[in-house]
Amino acid sequence: MSDSDTSSHPRPIAASAWRADTIVLHAGYNGHDHQRSAAVPIYQTTSFLFENAQQGADLFDLEEEGHIYARTGNPTQSVLEERVALLEGGTAALAVASGMAAIDMAFATLAQAGDHVVIASQLYGGTQNLIAHVLKARGISSTLLPRDQWSQLHQSFTAHTKAVFVESVANPSGDVADLELITRQAHAHGIAVIVDNTSATPLLVRPFDHGADIVVHSATKYIGGHGTAVGGLIVDGGRFDWAAQRERYPQFSTPEPAFHHFVITEKFPDFPFAARARTIALRNSGATLAAHTAFLLLQGLETLALRLDRVSSNTHELLDVLVQHPEVSSVSHVALTSHPDHASARRYLRGGHVPGLISFELQGGRDAARRFYDALRLFQRLVNIGDSKSLAAIPAETTHHLLSDEELRHAGISPGLVRLSVGIEHPEDLVADLRQALQHAAPAPHHPTERTTIITPALALEEQA
Ligand SMILES: Cc1ncc(COP(=O)(O)O)c(C=O)c1O
User: What is the pLDDT of residues 240-254, one digit of tens each?
Assistant: First the structure.
């Protein structure tokens, strides 16, 4: 990377003809510019040298591009940002300390006291908690919209609505958002749409292709993919016309007192959202991604395409077991024809892949779920998703335990719902562990009860495409 490349500025991403499998390995880095280091180096430094006083002043005035101080960026982080921005088809990205930091900063970049946001009812519990309580305490109100009301989304809008927030593939329900239905209505009112693409990854869903304006990620999940690093990203789609919506979003097209009185849309026309997120939200919150963590996330990202192939095929194997098992009362996954989003999945999921999140309930409810859970030997009992290793959680007792009963109902989470995050182990070992744990779900002695819910068999999306 040349001097002009090692920038703490949010930078535009050069168009690339590479496929995703190649981008994850090569984009944004040339070892010849880094002491011929083949691997992306960890820039373990807080600060970057100035040649002289003039250069320091120029860097601060954005007359010259370059890193200054690692709170707002460093060269290891820049490579991660460039790779993810390219994968998503955005114009720039900002890597931050966690997925929650990315979501919080995305809202902070758009909304302030007196504003309003509309959110899907099926979201990661931490996001729901942030919006329902933390944003509320900051004076930002929200409307939670159940999935069956998305066609009337526009009725929730007010003059102060600043964003619609959805997950492309929801955690834990696995529901696939009808992004075009959502973005069409939001854009008709000049409102930006933020999509959390964590559970899908850009290899399964590219929200910008369907009208989204901002994408956020918990890189902790599939991007890192090894359960070793917490991080997040905000990606700017670069197409939302903030200046045209000046009344709703004056912060983008009026002089910004917190940043040199620059007009963000004039100074950074290609990626104003990423620029504002970096120069205001990140600079002032300081929720910075450490260089070492950026390195770990880059290592994980290299194998994303390979991992998702195996996750997808393993998911089909496990679904086949679950839908036929007498102890299982319901299974939720978009690969099943019974899933209400099966059609959306066929429309939005790319590459013949299916997401690796499976939710299911047992005939014996919560007690059976606990027996099943405690009997797992290979699936790890913890709260994370997107690891190479297969994981299991009971969301109502963990990730979503802060939600009210009504919020849980809207999120499609019953007390006994089990969430699996499918990893890349050998499928037969996963199936064996699932089967033996399901045996333990029944109260001893084992009398399988009659099934109450009709479940249709798993259907490979790729066979239908
Ligand atoms: C869909 C989704 N978004 C955001 C987050 C928050 O990410 P992090 O834990 O990296 O802060 C999570 C965490 O589980 C998640 O599942």
Answer: 999 999 999 999 999
